[in-house]
Amino acid sequence: MTQEIVKYMNMPQEEKKKRKENRSNNKTDNISGRWFGLLPFALKLLIQKKK
C-alpha cells in the first residue's frame, strides 16, 4: 500500500490528470448500475440469456 502511495506521489501531474479522466470515463459506462444497483444488471443478463 505504501509503495502505491509513493508511486502516485512521484507521478507527474499530467499523468495524474490522465488517470483521473480515465476513471471518470469508466464511471459513465455503468451508470445504470451506479444509480439503480444490481437489479438492472440482473434483468439485462436474463434478457440476454433468453436470446
TrEMBL record:
Disordered: region residues: 1-30
Protein name, UniProt field: YqzE family protein
Organism: Aquibacillus albus
